[in-house]
Amino acid sequence: MERAIEMKNISKSFGKNSVLKNIDLEINRGSIHALLGENGTGKSTLMNILNGLLKPDQGTIKIFNKQYSYKNLKWKSQISFVHQELSLVNDLSVYENLFLGNEILKGGLLDKKKMIKEAQSILDQMDLKIDCKEKVANLEISSKQLVEISKSLIHKAEIIILDEPTSSLNDVEISTLFRVMKKLKEHGKTLIFISHKLNEVLQICDSFTVMRDGRAIKSGPVTEETTESQLSGYMVGKKLSMFSKELHSHSDEKTLEIKHMSKTGQFKDINMTAFRGEIVGFTGLDGDGKSELFESVTGSNYPYSGEILVNGKPINARNTSNAFLSGLTYVSRNRKENGIFKDLSVEDNLLMPIYSKLSKYGLINTRAKQIEFNEMVQDLHIKFGDENDRITSLSGGNQQKILIARALSSIPKIVILDNPTQGVDINSKFEIYSYIQKLSNLGVTFVILTNEYNEIKKLCDQIYIMYQGEIQKKLTYEELTEEKVLFYSMGGRNQDEGYEENKVL
């Protein structure tokens, strides 16, 4: 079988930090290859070298049996890198995004007619129900992901790197993405699938490579005998103790109540109650209104109608400051735009909310600062080079840990986490889950917004399923099944109106 990619003896260091150590990677043409590893193991660096964005300190690269030099980067046109944080321009149409930087001209003017025709042809080839003249801002996140992949086909890429493409998608949308991936494979395209969701690797991939500590430590085919436990063991270097939910009784003290909350076009007549020490889950399909609802609860989506009570007292969440002072804190799903301070250090990003607590007469107590920093880093096992490095030097998973640690540093009463383990490896997920469970046992109330069933099952005491801005169903932990979540999130009604668990899928 023809090799699409052969990377031999690839090494890369940044200063004294050795990121890649003699990496070998071989991938067959027309296959889907999983690239696995914990956050910070060098996956992104390796792919940036493959894509020509970084130059290795040593090693060689062959693309379709032809060896290339970093002097001309001719192979770059054959490779497309679809990043986890999408690079589409929301104010442009789909076809304008597809041809951005590669516009078709006719007589010195844009040939819109030809671009529309070619763009729609690409979308139709992949059986995507997307109008190429639609504005990208109007698309669901899953459709945006597919448009990003379509851009690589406009550029006639033969190798497509997909970095955590399912991190923001629900099960239905993932099925659509996988269908498109299989279609690309049938057309001879080679796909590299970077993911922390091992069940998806087993479902879609032909082969895998696991990276650990900057080395490729295991490669092989994905067969019926390959298991999630095996893959996670390769990733962490030992058999991983799987996290399981700790059943506990919460207090009967109400901490958060939402009464008849509505906002036109986003959510309607929402009622819910959370108790001290309880972990409440909200799930559904993208666009179901759960993020907008809790952005309103935490003051960043005003105005709204209805009532919010914290510890029995009404609050007016006109802005985030009001909500924060009431004991509410929120971690957004979009860490790049609404989470990290990109120009600040690891230390500043982590300690920002508590600098006032650490200072006296305008001077920061450096010893107290170091103690707080060390404790927060240890609690979530955050990996970094130096505390003064920019936060953008960290892997996405470690950035996410910093956001969660920062949110919890002010000791809030109620924490809303929107897609809290997006782009986080399996070991780090369990560390985050354990920390959430530990704090819930100490009385902190959590609301988890997620489309991942396994996340709900491992954490939540009660679950609200939303559909088109309304709560479709409330389930207890004991009532929860994956089939029920899918049924109600797609608009199914009550069981006595026709739900049959064995017919949902």
Automatic annotation (TrEMBL):
Keyword Lipoprotein: no
Listed GO MF terms: ATP binding
Transmembrane as UniProt keyword: no
PROSITE patterns: ABC_TRANSPORTER_1 (PS00211), ABC_TRANSPORTER_2 (PS50893)
InterPro entries: AAA+_ATPase (IPR003593), ABC_carbohydrate_import_ATPase (IPR050107), ABC_transporter-like_ATP-bd (IPR003439), ABC_transporter-like_CS (IPR017871), P-loop_NTPase (IPR027417)
Record-linked Pfam families: ABC_tran
Residue ranges constituting the ABC transporter domain according to the UniProt record: 5-238, 247-493
Sorted UniProt keywords: ATP-binding, Nucleotide-binding, Repeat, Transport
Coiled coil (residue ranges): none
Protein name, UniProt field: Sugar ABC transporter ATP-binding protein
Native source organism of the sequence: Companilactobacillus huachuanensis
Organism ancestry: Bacteria, Bacillati, Bacillota, Bacilli, Lactobacillales
